[in-house]
Amino acid sequence: MRILLVEDEARLAGLVRRGLDEEGHAVDLAGSAEEALDWLAAAGAEYDAIVLDVMLPGRDGLDLCRHLRQTRVSTPILLLTARDAVADRVAGLDAGADDYLVKPFAFAELSARLRALARRPAETLGVALEAADLRLDPATRRVWRAGQDVSLGNKEFRILEVLLRHPNQVLTRAAIAEHVWDYDFPSATNVIDVHVRALRRKLDDPYPGKLIQTVRGVGYRLSTGES
Question: For the modification 4-aspartylphosphate, which residues carry it (predicted)?
């Protein structure tokens, strides 16, 4: 996932960002509501989830959450707060948040809640993502081709997940990068091509039927074999 983390406490922000990075997520960090709005307004800054601290300097997280919903930003929002009273949780949910986590929290729980939020838009497709004989489970981070387990690195997994969420659609390298890397991704390099070649060696070469297609001069497409 590409995640916007809005947290002004530097130590906590660093720990959460490091943990999410290690899980293969792309994380952009904002220390205030104004900085978060700048990230959201940036060209191509599309997020799969927003982790939002309630107690921010200046404009607080609840006000930012309400603003985002009023301006029709539908990205799932997970609120972080030190307040654990029922009234505080209700206020957060009423502001438009999708979930609520009280500090201090275990990183494993934060990670699990983000996975749950990421599955919500795809519920009509089931938890797992599928194309032909390829199957990916975002919750367990497992991949199968023709019923056989395939081991992927973090970036390979994320690129495949992005392609599977947009079957038969041509995705540019820039579009793939926006969901897999953070804002500092070195777009001039061929790093995406390198990862796609690795995916093909693992997912296409050993099996009949080539699912990952190159669209010359544009990007890549994952074919379901139905179009």
Answer: 53
Q: Are residues 175 and 79 in the same domain?
A: no
Task: Check: CB of residue 97 under 8 Å from CB of residue 78.
Answer: yes
Residue 10 lies inside a defined structural domain of this protein: yes
Per-residue pLDDT tens listing for the chain (227 residues):
889 999 999 999 999 999 998 888 889 999 999 999 999 888 455 788 999 999 999 999 999 999 998 887 878 999 998 887 788 888 888 888 989 899 999 999 999 999 888 766 544 334 578 888 999 987 677 899 999 999 998 889 989 998 998 889 999 888 888 777 765 565 545 888 899 999 999 999 999 889 999 998 889 999 887 54
As a whole number of angstroms, the longest Cα–Cα distance in the chain is 58
Tokens coding 131: 């194309």
Indicate the residue type of 123.
E
- The number of beta carbons lying within 10 Å of the beta carbon of residue 86 is 7
